[in-house]
Amino acid sequence: MSHTDTHAVPDDHLMGVYNRAPLAFERGEGARLYTVEGEAYLDCLAGIATTGLGHAHPKLVAALKTQAEKLWHVSNIFRIPGQEALAKKLTDATFADVVFFTNSGTEAVECALKTARKYHWARGDGERVDVIGFEGAFHGRSYAAVFAAGNPSYVEGFGPALPGYLSLPFGDMDALKAAIGPTTAAIIVEPVQGEGGARALPEVCLTGLRALCDDHGVLLIYDEIQCGLGRTGKLFAHEWANDAAPDIMCVAKALGDGFPVGACLATAAAASGMTVGSHGSTYGGNPLAMAVGLAAFEELSNPATLANVREISGYFYQQLAGLQDRHSDVIAQVRGKGLLIGLKLIPNNREFMAAAREERLLMAGGGDNCVRLLPSLLFTVEEVREAIEKLERACERVTRKAAA
Predict the structure, then answer these.
(1) CATH code for residues 23-56+303-403
(2) C-beta pairs of 330-337 under 8 Å, 24+ apart in sequence
(3) Is 101 a catalytic residue?
């Protein structure tokens, strides 16, 4: 075996936490991935909403190459100009005043949870520690993040429940009003759930959440790791609602287009407890990540990119409605927002994903027996048509299998 034949190495030495599909890719270009055997796949998975600008975007490749020849890493005990530049772009474009850079979305969530609790502690309200989340949420895999989401399958076997976390039914405002009390520190919510089944929280609920938090002195945290940075057709999903800005927001995924980078954004007030020594990161905000993040944010925030998402997603939903009509025995519902699209299925979603892979189409799974279509924000009309054709054939495959 040559040193380049890495795909021939078995995964016996990898921890068995993934149920991997039998595919290995060696390169990508735009909305396509190519296997080590040279087969092309249409990518509506995008690394789970991560390669928001597609694969090998030339501006991002150039930014990374240029920075790689200059400086990879310095400690955060020094100023990092790229952090300062990207933080200004993020705060200029949002509600936020300050940013902490991380390596991942999970770390951004951890920072957000710590920031919320520290805010109340610094104000002399140390009893305010409870964080309210919602069923179906996904906030990452760290210890606090899994309990903030409350998915039973993610917390089972990891010891006693972490105190201070409460999970409520998705969108149940009455339950939320009843749950808020004197020990409530924050509410954390995805404006559009990803893994939970592409469920969008109604805009009126986002506005109501903001008002509720204001009335009770509770901080509002948005997890826009998957639904933010252009995926819904606005820079951030909560911007579709009026008067719904958060106190803290977590972003990642598309911010690096696949390069590991995340961020926790906050108002100056919300972050007032995060003083020297409160938090830190070895790699967070390193020069390589900042170079890519700056290039990615410029493209993601481009009005032309956001307009493309709105136009393409409108066409996609129109075509999917027709597909549902033709295959009502397979597709029960089309849901989502922008290019975070969910198909609630009648047959098993894993079975459907396998059928789609046979048609050289990649997509993500999701809760509530959904599959998610999460293509590049630069997806074209022609690529939507190709995706619909492949989905049509996947529907036919599962129908034939059910009839056999």
Answers:
(1) 3.90.1150.10
(2) 330/395, 330/398, 330/399, 331/395, 335/197, 335/198, 335/199, 335/200, 335/370, 336/192, 336/198, 336/200, 336/372, 337/192, 337/198, 337/200, 337/227, 337/232, 337/233, 337/237, 337/240
(3) no
